[in-house]
Amino acid sequence: MTHQILVVDDEQDIRELLQYNLQKEGLEVTCVGTGEQALAAARAEPPDLILLDLMLPGLSGLDCCRVLKGDGATRHIPIVMLTAKGEDSDVVTGLDLGADDYVTKPFSPRVLMARVNAVLRRRTDAMPDPADELSHQTLRILPARHEVLVQGAPVDLTATQFSILHFLCLHPGWVFSRNQIINAIKGEDYPVTERSVDVQIVGLRKKLGESGALIETVRGVGYRIKE
Known about the structure:
By secondary structure, the protein is α/β, with parallel strands linked by helices. It is 41% helix and 22% strand. It has 2 domains: 4-124, Rossmann fold; 134-225, Winged helix-like DNA-binding domain superfamily/Winged helix DNA-binding domain (Arc Repressor Mutant, subunit A, Orthogonal Bundle). It contains 8 helices and 12 strands. Helix 7 crosses helix 8. The mean pLDDT is 87.
């Protein structure tokens, strides 16, 4: 099966560069230059993934993302944002709106393809059952017993710390904003705020010892578990 990619960028040279690299990998590509055109194209023939520039004339990339993720017919389409350096706040907003990942301009074609392929795999592969046991490098998580082992030794985590670690390990390599982490673990027993997520991460890293380095901070965006 050949995947269909919708490229949204107002700069023709960027569109052509993206199209060349994507087609070289055997992907089918449609290119548009505005957010309005992106909405029309996505609704007419939903692609398998959208590469969406945030700096667009007229309807911005963030507004386009907001509309796509708010529409039942298009909310399932993965979105990889194209951002310029220094747009950390926009990246956070985009992730909170439901975007799946981002690539910073100027981008490496290899990095771009790695991100695109990872998102396509994520869409294709069945998500793991949250109740299943997880093993990730030195970590072993047993949800049914609410237990975490580090190199075979049990570690005593709070309910919130356990939930954060479990959520990150379900999606290795993926960056999540603090708000996304809150939304994933919120409930009556997990009264967390964005600031307290940082506190929980500090405590979690400390309890995990050397394995705490697996939890990476992505400056200005959030956290991920090292892939």
